[in-house]
């Protein structure tokens, strides 16, 4: 007891046995908010859970109610009529083909560029981020006028022109997805380890860097595909009848068919994106890599090599 008195007594008690003014630690004390659920002044866990469910239900109603209204307006029978309309198959195939070409070109350009900047030119990273944000800042009409003024004749008569324009639009999203994946890696270490084992630049990129960037690449693919399948302005100004342009043209003939086509495009895009996300999530769980995110890589990836 004498030792306790010299140390000031037990918690909440003075050395002479009288209680301290603040009470035991954790009781809050005078002037302090009481602890609720382990957090000073916080809500009980039941209230926080209920609030989350309320927000989730309101968000679900906000997004799903317009879709339900559009489905009731169009009717189930309108989906069968959409397929029989002239230009449906050709416009849908054009959008899918542009999505594939744009994705391949975007990954082929952005991946080596991002890797090289992270390895050799880290001071240029901020400048490259500013350059890649320009397609979002500059209006698409300005881009179209400039491209049509300088594009050669053989490009103007092919679908490749629109694919190259979509590459410019997809550049900010693809670069940031790849940049997030590279930031999650100890890139310099794994590249030096590959070089010390005799791997060249191509071998290192293909067998060491790409397996560790699978999640980031899938995020870039998701964003690029979603952008191409829903883009309207550039295609209409370039006089290409992609699927969004076809929906707008046929909206003047039949409102129900137009709504049904819009819902069909939305459902197909959702299905494709969810399929890519599920495949990437299963792959990341199997390999221990980071989880799929459409914009960032949220966890540190485990370095792997083939």
Can you walk me through this structure?
- 70% of the residues lie in helices and 1% in strands.
- By secondary structure, it is an all-alpha fold.
- It has a single domain, classed as Orthogonal Bundle (MetI-like fold).
- Strands 1-2 form a two-stranded antiparallel ribbon.
- Helix 12 runs antiparallel to helix 15 (255-287) and helix 14 (243-251) runs antiparallel to helix 15 (255-287).
- It is globular.
- Please count the helical segments: 15
Helix-strand category: mainly alpha
**Superfamily (CATH H level) name:** MetI-like
What's the total count of β strands?
A: 2
First CA to last CA: what distance?
A: 67 Å
Radius of gyration: 28 Å
String of helices and strands: HEEHHHHHHHHHHHHHH
Assign the CATH class: Mainly Alpha
| Residues in β-strands, percent | under 5%
In round numbers, the mean pLDDT is 77
How many domains?
Answer: 1
Low-confidence stretches: 1-10, 22-28, 292-297, 299-303
Write the layout of secondary structure elements.
Layout: H1 2-6, E1 35-36, E2 39-40, H2 45-74, H3 77-84, H4 88-120, H5 125-132, H6 134-137, H7 140-150, H8 153-156, H9 160-183, H10 187-196, H11 201-212, H12 214-230, H13 233-237, H14 243-251, H15 255-287
Antiparallel strand pairs: 1-2
Helix pairs in contact: 2-15, 3-15, 4-9, 4-12, 4-14, 9-12, 10-11, 12-15, 14-15
């Amino acid at each position: 007891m004498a030792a306790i008195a010299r140390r000031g007594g037990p918690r909440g008690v003075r050395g002479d046995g009288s209680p301290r003014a603040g009470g035991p630690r954790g009781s809050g004390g005078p002037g302090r908010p009481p602890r609720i659920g382990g957090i000073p002044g916080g809500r009980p866990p039941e209230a926080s859970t209920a609030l989350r469910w309320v927000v989730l239900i309101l968000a679900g109603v906000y997004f799903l109610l317009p879709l339900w209204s559009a489905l009731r307006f169009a009717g189930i029978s309108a989906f069968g009529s959409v397929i029989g309309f002239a230009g449906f198959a050709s416009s849908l195939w054009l959008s899918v083909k542009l999505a594939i070409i744009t994705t391949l070109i975007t990954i082929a350009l952005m991946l080596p560029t991002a890797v090289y900047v992270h390895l050799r030119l880290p001071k240029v990273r901020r400048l490259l981020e500013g350059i890649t944000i320009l397609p979002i800042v500059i209006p698409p009409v300005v881009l179209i006028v400039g491209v049509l003024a300088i594009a050669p004749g053989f490009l103007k008569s092919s679908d490749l022109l629109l694919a190259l324009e979509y590459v410019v639009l997809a550049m900010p999203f693809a670069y940031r997805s790849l940049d997030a994946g590279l930031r999650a890696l100890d890139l310099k270490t794994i590249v030096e380890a590959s070089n010390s084992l005799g791997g060249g630049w191509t071998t290192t990129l293909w067998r060491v860097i790409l397996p560790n960037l699978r999640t980031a690449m899938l995020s870039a693919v998701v964003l690029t595909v979603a952008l191409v399948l829903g883009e309207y302005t550039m295609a209409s100004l370039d006089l290409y009848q992609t699927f969004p342009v076809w929906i707008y043209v046929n909206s003047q003939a039949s409102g129900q068919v137009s709504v049904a086509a819009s819902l069909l495009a939305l459902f197909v895009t959702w299905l494709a994106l969810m399929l890519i996300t599920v495949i990437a999530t299963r792959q990341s769980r199997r390999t221990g890599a980071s989880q799929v995110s459409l914009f960032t890589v949220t966890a540190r990836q485990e370095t792997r090599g083939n």
